[in-house]
Model the fold of this input.
Amino acid sequence: DAKTTQPTSMDCAEGRAANLPCNHSTISGNEYVYWYRQIHSQGPQYIIHGLKNNETNEMASLIITEDRKSSTLILPHATLRDTAVYYCYFNFGNEKLTFGTGTRLTIIP
Amino acid sequence: EAGVTQFPSHSVIEKGQTVTLRCDPISGHDNLYWYRRVMGKEIKFLLHFVKESKQDESGMPNNRFLAERTGGTYSTLKVQPAELEDSGVYFCASSQLVGRSTEAFFGQGTRLTVV
Done:
């Protein structure tokens, strides 16, 4: 299974940018980086994915290093509703998702 | 457009009984996945359908679990006979087959409690 490393937990003040790091040093050139999150006991929710270039959508931005061995998910203006466990993984697409332990992000009022 | 729907949302059964979970994917999604989260553990992959075919069932814990997807539409996951360790939340996800980098949409899960 694809192996990623994420901090166990992080805090971020409401309204500030939340920056969540992920190491994926064994990623190959054709594998995508994906980010999902799980809010409380709901079903996991897709956030964003990317291959080489930085990506941005209505939820977040994804910054991938030039060597592709790590990435950072940025929530530009964190709200209390962003409190969740965030998962990073990589694969070739159309494959199973591999959830590790993720990062438990807590947004502080 | 309806999302991924799972039924039932909760199920409490006795050890030894049979339970069938159902997942209705988003219309047109050929990929269908089952996952499970046991209390305190990570979300684990169970199996992957492409249309009606099992693409990967490497995560199925044992032969008490049977998944089907007749006709390539909805899927069922049967546990027979259920054991205490089968308790957990079962998630279903679907995605489009076209293209390589597609996002998966998850249902809200079925919380199974075996007593």
Q: What stands out?
A: Chain B touches chain A through 28 residues (CB under 8 Å).
